[in-house]
User: Which sequence fits this backbone?
């Protein structure tokens, strides 16, 4: 694909709105970080379509995982991912190179997700059913598994959904971003604007709470 001839938001939006680059994006095996990420960002701002595709390929699967942790409807999840990258495309030139692109893009995704959750609540449409699919992906799936194993997996996913819903919003966010969005602890520290040690302690406490809820529900069940 040829790079756009200009750096206008419209040029970058073509890839964000097309659907195919995001829908078929795989994890970028080369990864993006540090100086390389900044170089790709500068190229994308300058209208380089290949640089934009690398950003999408690197971050779309992680954002999709985060969204699917909350949204059962795959079409709606993809819509939120697309909306996130549309916002990124229009605001990329405004991004200040501070080494925190990961926290910036995930904040956009979380804001878009919250907007959709508020909209759904107003229309009384439950959204928080996505952990069934997420738990299956995290735990892996095997097409040759016995029917009983699939049932056990569904029960475990249902328990996880219920337990996560009992976490407060701060604990839920850190668990979602880490375990469904795939953010590193360094990225999380930048996202929450907290020292790494504080972030690690918060994450540990959140998992301890989640484990306690799961164990309690196991005894109750």
Assistant:
């Amino acid at each position: 694909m040829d790079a756009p001839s200009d750096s206008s938001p419209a040029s970058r939006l073509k890839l964000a709105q097309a659907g195919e680059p995001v829908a078929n994006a795989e994890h970028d095996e080369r990864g993006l970080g540090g100086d390389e990420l900044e170089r790709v960002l500068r190229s994308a701002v300058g209208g380089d379509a290949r640089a934009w595709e690398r950003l999408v390929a690197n971050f779309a699967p992680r954002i999709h995982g985060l969204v699917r942790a909350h949204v059962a409807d795959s079409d709606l999840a993809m819509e939120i991912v697309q909306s996130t990258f549309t916002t990124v495309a229009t605001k990329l030139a405004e991004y200040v190179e501070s080494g925190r692109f990961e926290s910036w893009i995930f904040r956009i995704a979380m804001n878009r997700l919250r907007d959709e959750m508020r909209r759904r609540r107003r229309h009384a449409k439950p959204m928080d059913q996505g952990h069934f699919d997420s738990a299956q992906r995290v735990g892996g799936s095997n097409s040759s598994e016995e029917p009983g194993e699939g049932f056990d997996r569904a029960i475990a996913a249902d328990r996880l959904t219920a337990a996560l819903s009992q976490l407060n919003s701060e604990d839920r966010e850190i668990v979602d971003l880490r375990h469904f969005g795939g953010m590193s602890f360094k990225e999380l520290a930048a996202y929450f604007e907290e020292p790494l040690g504080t972030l690690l302690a918060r994450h540990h406490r959140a998992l301890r709470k989640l484990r306690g809820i799961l164990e309690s529900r196991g005894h109750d069940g």
In short: Residues 1-127 form a domain with the Rna Polymerase Sigma Factor; Chain: A fold (CATH 1.10.1740.10). Residues 1-30, 126-151 have pLDDT under 50 and may be disordered.
